[in-house]
Amino acid sequence: MRRREIITFLSGALAAPHLVFAQERTTVARVGYLGPAPAASFAPRVEAFRAGLRELGYVEGRNLKLEFRWAETPRDMPDLAAELVRSGVDLIFAPSSTETAAALATTKTVPVVFGAHADPVGVGHVASLARPGGNATGMTMLQTDVVAKELEALKEALPHARRFGVLFASAAPSRIPALEAGETAARRLGIELHRMPVQSEEDFHPAFAQMARDGLDGFMVLATPLTLSGRALIAELAIKHRLPSVFGTKDNVLAGGLMSYAADANALTLRAVSYIDRILRGEKPADLPVEQATRYELVINLKTAKALGLTVPPTLLARADEVIE
């Protein structure tokens, strides 16, 4: 996010009566960040996280100590979460449902703030959005609602399509409710969904080869850390196999995907920082309602459409919030 946008949001947030400048802290806050490797793939989100803390007055080396742990695979996350707990952090920040699951499997007492959870109620990480009830809270993009919109957009771009693939990380906790929501939307749209589970970027090549052999018309990608870090390879393989695509993150479209319908994960991360501040000041995650994303954007990459030989319908282009030419 641009610095102007960060300041605009935080100017409003700081006006709220429950927020007090963090410079008043006399102790050092220790915050853990549990993320997927490679760290460089998630640099914008980390910068939004750090910028939000800075604007609230948390200064690394003065009143803030950040502990980062980067998991090479989802299997590594529980051990890294345990490391953070043993190190004595006051709170763990988890960017998505994958990291949240690892943190909650490790601790029921250390607060966990999630930045852009796909479906915290659906996977059992909170009791309800209004009253989370446990040691976790934060921001959600409600992926189960979004996947229907993604399929609708892809079907509008390909009106004669009948069979779509769904590429998803098999280790992501949010995959189950998202796939169920996708199947419901697919029946309404009169299309078939072919599930394509992957565990690592090495699985992308055979998954795309299978979609091509099956003669699928296009594919949808469920947003996860794996599909975000592998966004360049996914875009390359989609062009190679001439498969139109729709994603749950704008970053995938900037990397060469065809279109996305999604909330801004960096903006959600920025808003999640206010939860960190409130919890560090003594509020309980159980009492802090999960906040839902309120703005979703349709982004279309016309360069990719041209490479695929696809003409995007004018009605779809007219609804796009951003068109990459």
At a glance:
The chain is α/β, with parallel strands linked by helices. It has helices spanning 3-14, 43-55, 77-86, 97-106, 143-157, 175-189, 204-213, 225-229, 231-240, 250-254, 265-280, 302-308, 314-319; strands at residues 29-36, 64-71, 91-94, 112-117, 136-140, 163-169, 192-198, 218-221, 245-247, 259-262, 291-292, 297-301, 322-324.
Tally of separate domains: 2
Percent of residues in beta strands: 15-25%
Name of the top-level CATH class of the largest domain: Alpha Beta
CATH topology of the largest domain: Rossmann fold
Give the proportion of residues in helices.
40-55%
Q: Care to describe what's here?
A:
α1 (3-14) crosses α2 and α2 crosses α11 (265-280). Helix content is 41%, strand content 20%. The chain has 325 residues and is of the alpha/beta class. It has 13 helices and 13 strands. The radius of gyration is 20 Å and the shape is elongated. The strands form 2 sheets. It has a 7-stranded mixed sheet with strand order 7-6-8-9-10-12-13, with helices on both faces.
What are the salient characteristics of this protein?
alpha/beta, Rossmann fold, 2 domains, seven-stranded mixed beta sheet, six-stranded parallel beta sheet, 13 helices, 41% helix, 20% strand, disordered N terminus
